[in-house]
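During the second half of the funding period, the structural biology subgroup turned its attention to how the target accommodates small molecules. The most pressing case was flavin-adenine dinucleotide, which had performed well in the primary screen but for which no bound structure existed. We therefore specified the complex as follows and requested a full 3D prediction, including the ligand pose.
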Amino acid sequence: MSKKKVENDAQQKAVQYDFDAIIIGSGPGGEGTSMELAKKQKRVAIIERYKDVGGGCTHWGTIPSKALRQSVSRLIEYNSNPLFRRHEKAKHLTFSDILKHAEAVIRKQVQLRSGFYDRNRVEHIVGEASFIDEHTLKVVKPDGSVEQITAEQIVIATGSHPYRPDDIDFSHPRVYDSDTILSLAHDPRSIIIYGAGVIGSEYASIFRGLGVKVDLINTRDRLLSFLDDEISDSLSYHLWNNGVVIRHGEQIERVEANDDSVIVHLESGKKMKADCLLWANGRTGNTADLNLANANLEADGRGQLKVNDQYQTSIENIYAVGDVIGYPSLASAAYDQGRLAASAMIDHRSTAKLISDIPTGIYTIPEISSVGRTEQELTEAKVPYEVGRAQFKHLARAQIANSLVGSLKILFHRDTKEILGIHCFGENAAEIIHIGQAIMQQKNGGNNIEYFVETTFNYPTMAEAFRVAALNGLNRLF
Ligand SMILES: Cc1cc2nc3c(=O)[nH]c(=O)nc-3n(C[C@H](O)[C@H](O)[C@H](O)COP(=O)(O)OP(=O)(O)OC[C@H]3O[C@@H](n4cnc5c(N)ncnc54)[C@H](O)[C@@H]3O)c2cc1C
């Protein structure tokens, strides 16, 4: 194609469409996409139905839950430290108290993220978007006015919302899901959490840390079964030891919401009563209001869209990233998917890929993080691996911080010494894991457990757990 023709085509497109790209949704998926496109000089707009940017991640999901957890964790630390407790009674905080800190963090996040859009000249349109055709969106503004805008390329980054079964009355003031729990107006003395996935387990830790009686109902046989068994067992033990009542392998039959309590009836015949219910069982992609059919697109039964390895849907100019495409449904991955989608939108055939070993960070109390394969997976695949362990209680830094609960486990190939999986349990696990991840991702033989015994660590640090675990594992070899 001649240079002149390319220029003409570009000019035509510029005339034809209001924007080069429109992104629907301002969560991490939308932000990652729009920033990357804007930096490549594209004319970008982001449509967000909520008045502030940040997405479910900032307003209802990751950020508030982590801020709540941080306050609870500090409260527990204070109350269990004899230095502070010698002269004072235990401190007590309510859910409303810790919500104030979460709200302050949300405000700071919104300010920060709004600045990113402003500085990169991404137009922020507030309104509800839906498709008119493959290049045209209808936007219903908060004042009810309607606008049509067009773009050469469109990205769906609309996230997900908690799944709500029809037979449960979520308008009842004692029935919440993980979005509405942030508007919990009273301070419950007891709560039933239905669904013991990551969100359910994290909220079980938060409420229990506040002294609330927690019944955690798990529809599966074990907690977070995708984790290494030892880690999942440790979480079960610690939740149990802290007084959380966990019931495995249960299914809900019905919910009886009364003026003064909620009663959950289980199919097994059990029933339990509490001040409120937190429903944390499943999420659905936000696609129902997009009029996908107008763009010749269709979501699956869970509201999710299928994409290829370029994050492109079945329609060439429409891409999708984040929770709306399903696994892994993490803010961390959504942001990177957005950046990768933007590269694909610009280059048309991008070779950049999301890393295969996405780390898992679970902010229960104690915290959990892992990267790579579990012992079950390696055993199943008949990989000859060895295990190196370090217990936090034997580390000087953990003793100083009075953070004795926890351990680090490194799984490595007994012949090549390649690190195959790292599993961490305890305070700051989600930070600690990244040291191991950095070594695991080294190419050309750089992924080797011996790195940890050959290097010098700051002392005292939690990072030292890697040296201790590596020595422990290498000493098992014969
Ligand atoms: C309680 C909880 C805790 C979590 N903790 C973590 C964690 O610790 N770590 C982690 O990595 N992940 C965590 N997650 C998951 C994480 O929040 C999501 O994976 C992430 O937010 C997905 O990003 P996204 O950009 O796809 O969508 P979202 O962040 O959900 O953003 C989508 C945006 O699109 C907007 N939107 C939807 N439809 C329209 C429309 N038609 N028109 C205009 N705007 C629209 C929505 O208003 C929303 O703002 C947690 C989730 C929950 C619920």
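Two results from this model are relevant to the next phase. The chain has a mean pLDDT of 95. The longest helix spans residues 95-119.
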